[in-house]
Design a protein that fits this description.
The protein has 420 residues and is an alpha+beta fold. Helix content is 19%, strand content 35%. The chain contains seven helices and 27 strands. The protein has helices at residues 12-21, 25-32, 40-46, 109-137, 160-172, 186-194, 299-302; strands at 2-5, 8-11, 36-38, 52-58, 81-87, 89-96, 148-152, 179-184, 199-200, 215-218, 221-225, 236-241, 245-247, 256-261, 268-277, 280-281, 284-286, 308-310, 319-327, 330-334, 345-350, 362-366, 370-379, 382-391, 393-399, 405-406, 412-416. Strands 7, 8, 9, 10, 11, 12, 19 and 26 form an eight-stranded mixed sheet that branches. It has a four-stranded antiparallel sheet with strand order 20-21-24-23, with no helix packed on it. A hairpin with a 2-residue loop joins strand 10 and strand 11. Helix 1 crosses helix 4 (109-137).
Length: 420
């Protein structure tokens, strides 16, 4: 439907066509590497209505052949299969005219709006992909648990590529050859850049723009470098292979429209955009949550380990996450003064920035003294743990190792003080 937006002629069909034609280098890399596969059965299942469906699969042929000697009977093995369930997600976002004001320079206002909208939805799609990967990586299947690969950060980064290659071979065996792509953050990418192993694609696209510098090649893998999808301070590598993610085209009747509100701000027009998509981890079934389900899954539901049940043998699922583990030391000192001031906190100073620390990770063990832990505050290298119920003397402090960090296993002795 035609209308006006920012006093410019606006046609929804033209906008939608331009939006669809806007380059998406990350999606292109995922498709060209074979990681994301358009699966016609998904599109067929969702072309009329619905968010949920199933697709069949056949298990690999198995059994030993018999000796073909003219005397031995040929045995028959029945083929078998199963099905996996998938879900489509839907998202919507609207912007008022004034949200685009800073971008309206030059002689192509619609182009600015299209690019801003496309970039927004591209980033959202990448975040949802990571949510899905997090959900399956955390799956409780004991075989698939091996796909969360912990790598001790070496003192010499030159050994890192060989270590990663070996770890992947140990998990996937002969199926390692199906792996095609890595997604990593800029800090991790810099390690390989400094080793002159990560080469970014260079060139000029058909619209005379430089090829996106986040796409590169490393150890035979396509590499996507994107900090937008990583939590602050987290350094991971997601490794994906052929057919890891299945997608389709769900029905969507109104992907874009204008809405006029004559009362808001004296009269304003909003641009409403909607998307529906499928990013299904091949080899798993999506399980509809038992509560808070409203047809379209939330990001939290997509990233929940309980949302997926494994269907394939784990080695046949080309999805893995490499977690770098840092060895971290720390000092711990209580405030207060013997006989004068009772200690109220223990201050921790770590050898490097630590993220995601919780009070539940810290254990205080009574020695000649005692204390009860309270709330934990802080960030980076400096954290403080509140303490109460102090009895003067020494206590032992330990911190449980986490996915990304290992801490000394021996208790650190800390003196705590009590007012006489």
């Amino acid at each position: 439907m035609a209308g006006t937006f920012l006093n410019y002629p606006f046609d929804e069909e033209i906008f939608l066509r331009a939006w669809g034609n806007e380059p998406d280098p990350v999606r292109n890399a995922l498709v060209q590497s074979g990681v994301i596969v358009n699966y016609p059965a998904i599109t067929a299942a969702l072309k009329d209505y619905g968010n949920f469906g199933t697709i069949p699969y056949y298990k690999p042929l198995s059994g030993d052949p018999v000796n073909y000697d003219g005397q031995t009977d040929i045995t028959i093995t029945e083929t078998s299969g199963g099905h996996q369930s998938f879900v489509a997600y839907g998202r919507a976002k609207a912007w008022r005219e004034r949200d685009f004001m800073p971008e309206l320079v030059g002689n192509d206002p619609l182009g600015h709006i299209v690019r801003a909208n496309a970039k927004y939805w591209q980033n959202q799609r990448q975040k949802i992909l990571i949510s899905v990967l997090e959900g399956v990586i955390a799956n409780s299947d004991t075989g698939f648990a091996k796909h969360k690969i912990k790598v001790d950060r070496p003192s010499d980064n030159a050994t890192l590529p060989g270590t990663i290659n070996t770890k992947l071979a140990e998990v996937f065996g002969a199926e390692k050859g199906a792996l095609r792509l890595m997604i990593m953050d800029a800090v991790t990418a810099a390690v390989f850049e400094n080793l002159n192993l990560l080469e970014y694609r260079k060139g000029v696209s058909v619209n005379a723009l430089l090829v996106d510098m986040r796409i590169g090649e490393l150890m035979g893998y396509t590499v996507i470098v994107d900090d937008n999808v990583f939590n602050i301070g987290k350094q991971y590598i997601y490794v994906l292979g052929l057919g890891a993610i299945l997608t389709g085209v769900p029905r969507l009747d109104r992907p874009v429209e204008l809405d006029r509100d004559g009362l808001k701000f004296g009269g304003t027009t909003s641009l409403i955009t909607r998307v529906r998509d499928v990013l299904h981890p091949n080899g798993f079934s999506f399980v509809i949550p038992s509560s808070n389900w409203s047809e379209s899954p939330t990001d939290a539901q997509l990233s929940a380990s309980t949302s997926y049940t494994i269907k394939y043998p784990h080695k046949m699922i080309p999805i893995a996450k490499i977690v770098f583990v840092d060895s971290v030391t720390f000092t711990a000192t209580a405030d207060g003064e013997s006989g004068t001031t009772t200690s109220k906190k223990i201050d921790f100073v770590f050898s490097q920035d630590v993220h995601g620390l919780a009070a539940s990770d810290i254990t205080i063990t009574a020695g000649t003294g005692a204390a009860t832990k309270g709330a934990l505050t802080g960030s980076g290298k400096n954290w403080s743990l509140a303490i109460t119920g102090v009895s003067e003397g020494n206590v032992g402090v330990t911190i449980a190792s986490k996915d990304e960090y290992t801490f000394p296993t021996d208790a650190l002795t800390v003196a705590v003080y009590e007012k006489s």
